[in-house]
Amino acid sequence: MANVAVPSAGVVAKKKKMDSSFFKKGIFTAFISGVAYGLYTAFMTLGMAKGVWADYFYASPAKSTSGIALSAFVVTYLLGSLGSALNDTCSGIWCVIIALVKGKFGDYVKTLNSRAGRILILCAIIGGPIASSAYVIGLQMAGSIAVPISALCPAVGAILGRIFYKQELNLRMIFGILICVVATFMIGSTTLGDTNKNAFWGIVIAFISAVGWGFEGCVGGYATCMVDFEISITIRQVTSGISNLIILLPLWSLLAGENITLGWRLAGEAISNWTIIFFIVSGFFAQYSYARWYKGNSMCGAALGMALNGMFSFWGPFCCWIIIGLIAGIDGYALAPIQWAAAIVMIIGIFFIAMNPLDLFRKKNTEEA
User: Fold this and answer.
1) Residue 61, preceding bond cis, omega within 30 degrees?
2) Tell me: the pLDDT tens digits for 69-94?
């Protein structure tokens, strides 16, 4: 029988150190994606509160700059999708620019027709037009309670990661995910009184966004193990931006009983308005956030990566408070004390997902011995 080489203890220790370093980098990457998500949310929200958007939402009756009367349906649904479409389109343009500068555009084109590329296109459609539209509709029907409902995506992603890719999901990690879920509901509890008679269906629809983003984070993270993360996110954002513009806007226009071109006409007005600057900035942070989300999930697993990214339920309101409330001087964005407390609770939950707290005591005992 041939001799089988057995790695030395030093090689094994070095391998464990490298794995630990890679895992820690994944944790930081996923964490920073949540912060960037909050910044993108703040700048997009600010853009939709100024200029032509203020006329859309606050004029009575609502009308476009060209004098087109806008129904309540158009204001509620089409304009929300338009904001998302402009953000994702700007984000896609940023992705293409970065790919060109770094010499990755050729790889992006080649990857589109690969198995991983097709997986990423599917993720983009599910996580972009489908999940984002469900999120917008949920917000309109159920109020801000839709935010913590949609933030259930880490739990969905962890379960799917276990089913599809046999990623670890033990009782400790499940407990940590439940803590994160409780924290998101603490944040949403500040606006529970704002729900209306359509709240139930709004919550159901918001849950669709959680499932969509959970699927995207899990499967997109897996695909990013095979494809450079910047190429992955270029496919994601370009696909999402295009599908939002050519599918969603005409669809909402038809459902509103309007001409199919209404959404495109409103998009033209919004693009030509000075507020497009805010969407260019939000698109940059969206590109950065989603790229780190995919990369972080591929490095530390769907459960932990999505829990860290899921802190957007805190970073979103926090960045809106800083940028819209303090800097832009618009009232109504101050954080309630329970939201600060929820952030601490969420950190505890993420800690439980990342490691066993008993390991800290074991390490201490080992050092003393």
Assistant:
1) yes
2) 888 888 878 888 898 889 999 999 99
